[in-house]
Design goal:
GO terms for molecular function: electron transfer activity. The chain is α/β, with parallel strands linked by helices. It is built from 6 helices and 16 strands. It is globular. Bound molecules: 2-acetamido-2-deoxy-beta-D-glucopyranose (10 copies).
């Protein structure tokens, strides 16, 4: 009897093992866990290409002594604060089991490694997220810009809104809902030039009250940012391409096939000229300022 039960249990487990495929994500792929020359965008881009499922493993490949890895809070991630990490592993390579859903934040604590871009944010879910079917859509939708992140200076820079817009189809009649803090942010509708230069002294319209709901009335490219100091430079900027509501197949120029080979393959949005205009050195200079601001 016991024997049979044991066999049954073993069989059940074997069944589970085959259905639940555990993925080991090698952080940074062949680059491993290093200070990336590109700055924070490197791991942001890597992360955006992955789907992290409950039970998966994160494999941080690094040399003991040269690097370390700490799991930290969102706030510590943002400010590169390595005091009181949730967990710290100093011997490499290191595995982290993703045993709960939600966001995980990792930084390197040595020297200025985090400030220079050795930081990773991921989101763990229970199932491969809903793949928005790029079928032709005619019924307008409401989109919450940035989803739960809202409309803020994104911790990882502009990649956040690039990724958000990626694979989304916008049609005339859709509404963008921007959630932000009154009096510490706003939504400026701007031209492509302003989007690129972050010179926000001129804008087409500014919305001061959150939530700001902006209905897309025209096809073509639309650009949004904030007029508050440095917000645009730090990546609070959104570019989208609105197609007609009559359901021409959504064009995804700069999609996976035509995307840049190495860089933020994540998420070249329709507006392919825009991404990653801020040179890394600029980010490096500005990051400490951001910390001061925060
Ligand atoms: C980890 O890094 C070492 C040294 O760079 C490399 O030889 C090895 O293949 C890497 N392992 C993985 C799983 O990428
Ligand atoms: C870093 O975090 C620690 C504890 O979490 C906190 O006491 C400290 O004030 C933080 N430092 C900065 C510069 O925010
Ligand atoms: C990390 O996990 C992988 C895959 O499960 C395993 O092959 C490897 O031995 C583990 N390495 C360490 C250092 O625990
Ligand atoms: C996840 O793993 C960590 C460290 O291994 C452990 O402290 C924690 O209790 C685990 N959480 C769950 C929900 O199993
Ligand atoms: C969008 O939101 C507005 C009000 O916030 C609501 O009236 C409208 O029905 C929503 N549209 C869709 C498609 O959800
Ligand atoms: C993480 O994933 C959950 C579930 O898909 C989602 O609700 C949440 O907004 C995501 N968080 C971030 C920061 O993307
Ligand atoms: C975007 O869509 C393409 C094809 O439609 C798919 O291969 C890719 O995984 C999607 N990317 C994301 C981040 O959803
Ligand atoms: C920003 O734009 C305004 C008008 O569009 C211009 O007068 C100003 O010189 C620009 N500032 C910079 C720093 O380029
Ligand atoms: C922002 O201000 C508007 C108008 O005063 C108000 O209706 C709205 O509730 C405020 N939003 C937040 C998030 O405080
Ligand atoms: C925006 O979409 C239109 C229609 O699909 C397309 O013709 C145009 O090239 C797109 N613009 C950009 C910058 O991708």
């Amino acid at each position: 009897m016991m024997m049979r039960l044991a066999i049954l249990v073993v069989a059940l487990f074997a069944g589970l093992q085959t259905t639940v495929a555990v993925t080991t994500h090698v952080v940074g792929d062949t680059r491993g866990w290093v200070v990336p020359a590109e700055g924070p965008i490197f791991y942001a881009a890597w992360s955006a290409k992955q789907t992290f499922i409950l039970g998966d493993i994160l494999y941080f490949n690094f040399t003991t002594g040269a690097e370390d890895v700490a799991r930290v809070t969102a706030e510590a991630f943002l400010t590169c604060n390595s005091t009181n990490p949730i967990a710290l592993v100093t011997t490499g390579p290191a595995n982290f089991s993703l045993n709960s859903t939600g966001e995980y934040y990792f930084i390197g604590t040595l020297d200025r490694h985090c400030l220079m871009g050795q930081k990773l944010a991921i989101n763990v879910t229970t199932s491969p997220g809903p793949t928005p079917s790029p079928s032709t859509r005619t019924v307008p939708e409401n989109y919450t810009v940035g989803d739960r992140l809202g409309w803020v200076i994104p911790p990882l820079g502009e990649i956040a809104y690039i990724s958000w817009a990626y694979n989304k189809t916008f049609i005339v009649g859709d509404t963008l809902v921007f959630n932000f803090f009154n009096r510490s942010d706003d939504v400026a509708v701007v031209t492509k030039d302003v989007y690129n230069s972050c010179n926000t002294s001129t804008s087409l319209a500014v919305y001061n009250n959150s939530p700001a709901a902006i209905t897309l009335e025209k096809t073509g490219e639309h650009y949004f940012t904030s007029t508050y100091n440095y917000h645009c430079e730090f990546g609070q900027k959104l570019a989208i391409n609105v197609t007609g509501s009559t359901g021409s197949p959504p064009s995804t120029p700069g999609g996976p096939s035509s995307g840049a080979a190495e860089g933020p393959n994540v998420a070249l949005p329709p507006v392919s000229a825009a991404p990653s205009r801020i040179p890394t050195s600029y980010l490096l200079i500005l990051f400490p300022i951001a910390m001061a601001v925060f």
